[in-house]
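Supplementary Methods S3. Input chains for the assembly prediction are listed below.
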Amino acid sequence: MSNTKPSLPKGTRDFGPVEMARRNYILETIKDTFRLFGFEQLETPAMENLSTLTGKYGDEGDQLLFKILNSGDYLKGVTIEEVAQGSSAILPKIAEKGLRYDLTVPFARFVVMNRNELVFPFKRFQIQPVWRADRPQRGRYREFYQCDADVVGTDSLVCEAEILLMIKRVFGAFGLTDYTIKINNRKILTGLAEFIGAPGKEQELCVSIDKLDKIGWEKVKGELLDRGFVADAIDKLAPIVRREEGLNADTLGFFREILGSSIVGSMGVDELSQVLDLLEAMGGDQSHVSFDPMLARGLSYYTGAIFEVKINNVSIGSVSGGGRYDNLTGVFGLPDVSGVGFSFGVDRIYDVLLELGLFGDVAAAPVDVLITHFGQQEMNYGLGILSELRALGISAEIYPDTSKIKKQFAYADKKNIPYVIVIGSEEMNSAKVTLKNLRSGEQHTDNLNKVCEVLVQKKRSPND
Amino acid sequence: MSNTKPSLPKGTRDFGPVEMARRNYILETIKDTFRLFGFEQLETPAMENLSTLTGKYGDEGDQLLFKILNSGDYLKGVTIEEVAQGSSAILPKIAEKGLRYDLTVPFARFVVMNRNELVFPFKRFQIQPVWRADRPQRGRYREFYQCDADVVGTDSLVCEAEILLMIKRVFGAFGLTDYTIKINNRKILTGLAEFIGAPGKEQELCVSIDKLDKIGWEKVKGELLDRGFVADAIDKLAPIVRREEGLNADTLGFFREILGSSIVGSMGVDELSQVLDLLEAMGGDQSHVSFDPMLARGLSYYTGAIFEVKINNVSIGSVSGGGRYDNLTGVFGLPDVSGVGFSFGVDRIYDVLLELGLFGDVAAAPVDVLITHFGQQEMNYGLGILSELRALGISAEIYPDTSKIKKQFAYADKKNIPYVIVIGSEEMNSAKVTLKNLRSGEQHTDNLNKVCEVLVQKKRSPND
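Predicted C-alpha cells for the full assembly:
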C-alpha cells in the first residue's frame, strides 16, 4: 500500500458541500423548467464503445477521447511487430471503450437503439458529466457537466420558441437581467454566401465570421482572403458585417431584402421571423432576444436555428448554446431525424452567479439548528429534542461528543448553522431550552414548542 | 465514420424517462433524510489517480479497476523489451488513472486532502456511479450507483443510532414493512473467537460465518476445520450459531454472559447495548432492528458496529450495509480517523420496490396536460393557453405539428399524460376549451379559468 500524499488527476475537481449546494440550485432550477415544458430525463453510461464515439468529433476530438484499457491481459493477441508500429496502431486492440465526450452522440445512439419504443416527438433532457483530455486551464476542465435538452422527430418551430422561453425562464429565475440570447439561422448564412457570390462556401464563411468578436473585422477579412474569398465578395460582406445592431424587426427586414433572390436565405429569414412570432404568441416578448446574423458557432451540423447566450456584464464568453440539426442519427444508420437542442453551460453559469453575488443564501444553511449541551446528561436530554425537531422537518444535529461548549459553538459557526439550542442543567430542570441565533447573537429560553415554532417559521421565511 | 448498429458496452445501461423517474424518487427520498440529519453532499471526480486506488481493494479489486489509457502517444518511453514482459509490466507506464471503484476511497482521499479546512465531525453523503470490470450478470453491472453516508472524526455511538433512524425513516418512506436491520459489533466477533479458544482468528471466523445463510452450518463447520479451528472450538461455537433468534435484550444478555471474560467482547456488547438505548432515547423503537451476533459482512476494515438490511419478503440478498471503521485514512498518511458509514443499495432497492409494486404513480405522469388541436389556427390559439398553464406551474405541452387528432391522442397516451385539452373551431369561437381525462374518458367544455382550476387541483391531490 502506498503512503504518499494523495492528489487529484489534473483537470478534475472535488465538489464540497458549499459548491454542491450551489450546483444543485442551478441544476434544480433548470430541471424545473425542463419538466414544466414536458422534457423527460435520460441518463446514459459514462463508458461508450469507441466505435460509437470515434469519428464524431473530428480528428481533434478523437485525440481528446479518454480511452479505457481492456480488462485482463489486454496485450493478448497483440504482436511485438504491431507494438513496434506505435500507439495508434494497437489502440483498437487494447481499448474498446471510451468515456462520454458530450451528451449528443450518446443521445443519438439511444434514439437509434430505442427508435421502435420511443414516442416521437421525443423531448429529453440529460445532465451528466463528460470527459475530454484537453489541456486544463482556467475555466476548462477534463471532467465537467453538460446540461442538454433536445426535441427530436419534429421540425416544428414551436420547439425553437420554447427554447427561447426556457432560457428566459431559467435566467430570470437566477436573477440575471443583463444577458442576450443571440439567435440566427444557418439558412441565412447560406443565403449570405450566395449573396456575396460565394455560394456553397458558408462553412468557410462561418468559421471566419465566428471569430469576429475575438479578432475583429480586419483580421477576419485577411482570413477570408486566405480562404479564397475574392475582394468583391468581401466588399459585399463588409457593410452587412459592420451594420449596427438594431431592432430584430429592422434587421429581419434588411435581410429579407438582400436575401430576396436566395431561396434558402429567404427561408431562413422566414423561419426566424416565425420563431419570434411564436415566442410572442406563447406569451413571451423579445426582450433579451437579439437576431445576430453573424452568429455561426462554428459548428457544421446546425441546419436551422442557431442560439447562443451571453452575459453582458461578465466577461466569460457564451454561457449556453444550441441549434437545429437535421441529421442527428444518420451516422448510426437512421436518416432524416430532425431535432433542435440546447445546452446550459453549468460551470460558466456557476462562475457568473458567483461573480454577480446571485447565489444569495443558497449554500448558507445546510442545517437549521445544532443542539449543544454541557454534559452527558444534557446530551441525553437533547436526543429527545432532536427527534422532535426532525419530525417537524427541521434539519437538526446534536453535537455527538461531550466537548467544551466553545468547541460545539465553533462547529456550528464553521458549518454556517444559524441557530444553536443550548442545554444546561437549568434548562433540564425547567423543561425548557435556550435558542440562540448565532448571526444576531440574540437568545431566549422558552418551552420546546415555542422554540420549534420559531425554527419552523424561520425555515418558511428565512429572510424575516 | 462507421455506419453500423450502435450498442452499449456490456454491463452498462441507459436509464430512460420511466427508470429515471423511479430512480430520482429513490434518491430524493434518501437525500431528504440525509439532509434532515445534517449530512452534506460531496462529489468527487470519476477518475482518480491509480496510485490512489491500487492496493485498496485487494488483488481481486485491483484486477477489477477500469484503467484509463494515458493521452497522446502512450507508448512513448516504453521499450519493446518492457512490452515483451506483458500487460502488467507496462501498465504503470501507459495508464496513470482509473475509474472510481467505490465512494469510500475517494472520500478518504478528500478528507486527507482537505483535513485543514474541514469541520469535524464531518458528515458527508455522496451519490455517484462507480465502475467495476466484473463479469456482468443478472443484478450485477459494470456501472452502478452507490449512495453513501459517513460521519468521520468522532467515535460517538450517537452516529450508529442515527444510522438506524435514517434507515427506518427511508424504508418507511418507501412503504416497506417487512424488512430487518441486522446489527452486530466486530468486537463481539473478536470476543467470540476468544471464547471458543481461537483468539485472534476472528477474521477467519468471520469469513466462514458470513456464508452461514448461503451454505448452512454443516458446510461452514467443514470450512472452519479447513481453516484450522479445532473440534473443541467448533463444539463451543455450535450452540451459539444455532441459537434461535430472540429479543435483542435476551441475545445481549446471553452474550454479555458468555463474553464476560473477554474485555473486547464485553466492550462490543456494551457498545451495541448503548446504540439500542440511544435509538430509543431518540424516539425510535427496536422494531425492524435485530441483533445478529453472526453478522460479519466479510469485510476486514470494520472495527465496531456492523449493519446490514434485508427485505424479508423479496429474495434479493442484502439491500444496504455499513459499519464503523477506525482507520479510514491511514493508508493516505492520516491515522486515527474513526468513522461510521452506511450505503443504500440503490439498484436492489429499485428492484424491490418494483417487485412489491411500491412505486405507485411515481413515473406515471411526466406531463400534466397535452394541448391538441384541429389545425394551424387552433394550434396558434393553443399557444397562449400553453403559457397560461405553465405560469400556474402545470407541466404542459402542445402537440407541435398539425397532425390528425388521433395521432395527437396516441402521443398523450404513450407518454402517460393524464389529460388533453382539445381545441377545435367551436372552442375558439366560444373562447372555451375542452378538457378530456384520458383515464376515465370523461370530458367537458368550459372556460380556461375553470379548466386550470381542475388541473391545479389534480396536481395537488392526484388521487382525488
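Chain B touches chain A through 110 residues (CB under 8 Å). The CA atoms of residues 16 and 22 of chain B lie 10 Å apart.
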